Amino acid sequence: MPRKLICIGDPDTLPADIVEGEVVVVDTSVAVVDQLDDPSIEGVWIARDQLPKISELRGISQSGIMLRDMPEGVALLDSDLRVLWANRRLVEWSGRSEPSVGLNFYEMLSNPEIMGPDFCPFHTALATGDESNSTLHTEDSRYFQVHAAPMVHPVHSRQLVVTVSDITEEILQQNKLAAIHQAGRELADLRPTEIFMMEVDERIDLLKENIRHYLSNLLNFNIIEIRLLEQATGNLMPLLSVGIDQDAADRQLIAHPQGNGITGYVAASGVSYICHDVVNDPLFIPGVADSRSSLTVPLMLHDQVLGTINIESPEINAFGDSDLQFLEIFARDIAFALNTLELLVAQKANTAQQSCDAIHGAVALPVDEILNDAVNVMEQYIGHSSEVVDRLKRILRNARDIKQTIQQIGQRMTPLEAIPVGGESAHHVSLRGKRILVVDADEQVREDAHQLLERYGCIVETAHKGDEAVLMVRGSDDSTIYDVIISDIKLPDYSGYQLMLRLGKIMDYVPMVLMTGFGYDPGHSIVKARQNGLHAKGVLFKPFRLDQLIDVVKTILDFNEEIKASGVVPPKPVDMEEPAESKQHSDGNPPSDPS
């Protein structure tokens, strides 16, 4: 094979013994690289006037070294996607020991799956002259992002420069994040039939099992403790413990930054906490004897702390920023799931309460009619037929039992949610079981009294007019005596003040409340009533609000207790100006019914 020499520049500068036919003349040092593929080339001659361009050749050499050793993969492909050159990193990723030159690029990477967005990135770059990107998924579950760019030099326009990046960790993080979001949606995802069939405890158990499953299988956490914050007390109550020592699970903790471990600190501050080494962390209280590090995040809903999740590991520095990010995301989903369960419980309770209210509302006033009629008839038979009186008393007891049974069923079906916010506070406990008599000709007022007062556990009975109220009070025994009597100031037969006077003749103390419209007080009834023992706050102005009604009733009940404690009974009301038609009933007997 004849020898050849590459000449850069003027060939007349060649030595005299060089034959012209053995010389390949090129203009630039870049062109030398293309000619070096010829095995007959034995040397390169550079004319002196071309020597300043030697730096270009040096740059090419240095660039080659950098491309060879750079941390990303680089390859040069021809138009058939064969590898003309590949750097060390790409060869390493291909897992091949032999050179990859001449192999199809996809073959070099063991024919990976093309995931897009461009499913023909190399052909797109060759056809359009523009750059193109895609993601490849290999058999060993690695992900590579490829970027193909056509050569800009016109002589090499059918070649591609391909850069390859390993994005396995990024893709796995994205997949894990998507799995966490999916798990979060499934935490409390119950079908209507499941909600209908499952009790509250069963739904909570299902949620706890789902949380345990996803924390263990998806996030690979094996030592788990979840506590819920009692907003009123600050106590952190255990909800779920996996792998936690029993003594630690039973430990009493409160949301406080001091003396309650990392869990108490996170619940108090609402800030996540990574304990890299328990030995050097003064806040840490172990949940497992061999714990060496922990990760604790708050359960947050609308900037409110609902509880905490604590994860522990027997390894030092077991948790990093990605673990913190994933657990915080999942903690938000848990908080929403817990809130959803609370809403379901409240909705179910509300539905049950509405049903009980509807039933009770339908029977409350008719039962009151039975009570009114029974005491009226009983009044006629007193002293004449003890057997009839006993039967009438039994009717009274049974009628009252009907209302109380419906009320008790409603309270059992909705033990917490049926009571308004604050209904279980100490301020309202004293209302439970108290007997209230409401006297008003307006049926709506009587219905409202049942609805508003009975939700707090009061026992409410009503009457249309004053004579009925007198008979209801007279027909009461020690077990059915009224704790508060609320009357309109204008009744069909006489005024609320006159009712107060009549009741004063058959009661040691009349726990009276008078209702009136704003500015309406015929005959100055309220003034007279206050002069004769009506409590200073024993007035309701219609239409009244629930809180006003409760406050007035509570005031009278408290005053009753003061009277019992002191043993001093206020003087009975006496009206020296009582009209003649009222005086004829001063013995407490009702007037005759003109009808």
Q: What would a concise description of this structure say?
A:
The chain is of the alpha/beta class and 595 residues long. Helices cover 43% and strands 19% of the residues.
List keywords for this structure.
595 residues, 19 helices, rod-shaped, 20 strands, six-stranded antiparallel sheet, 43% helix, single chain, alpha/beta
Distance between the termini: 143 Å
Total of DSSP H or I helical runs spanning 4+ residues: 19
Low-confidence stretches: 415-426, 578-595
Q: If strands are numbered along the chain, what order do they take across the biggest sheet?
A: 5-4-9-8-7-6
Q: Based on DSSP secondary structure assignment, what is the total number of beta strands?
A: 20
Oligomer: single chain
pLDDT average, as an integer? 79
Rough outline: rod-shaped
The major β-sheet equals: 6 strands, antiparallel
Please identify the structural class as seen in this structure.
Answer: alpha/beta
* Helix content bin: 40-55%
Q: Which value, in Å, is the CA radius of gyration? A: 46 Å
Strand content: 15-25%
Architecture blueprint of SSEs:
Blueprint: E1 4-8, E2 23-26, H1 29-35, E3 41-46, H2 54-69, E4 73-77, E5 83-86, H3 88-94, H4 105-108, E6 113-117, H5 121-128, E7 132-137, E8 143-150, E9 160-166, H6 168-186, H7 192-197, H8 200-217, E10 223-229, E11 235-242, H9 246-249, E12 253-254, H10 261-269, E13 273-275, E14 293-301, E15 304-313, H11 321-381, H12 386-413, H13 426-429, E16 435-439, H14 443-454, E17 459-463, H15 466-474, E18 484-488, H16 496-504, E19 512-517, H17 525-531, E20 539-542, H18 546-566, H19 580-583
Parallel strand pairs: 1-2, 1-3, 16-17, 16-18, 18-19, 19-20
Antiparallel strand pairs: 4-5, 4-9, 6-7, 7-8, 8-9, 10-11, 10-15, 11-12, 13-14, 14-15
Helix pairs in contact: 6-11, 8-11, 11-12, 11-14, 11-15, 15-16, 16-17
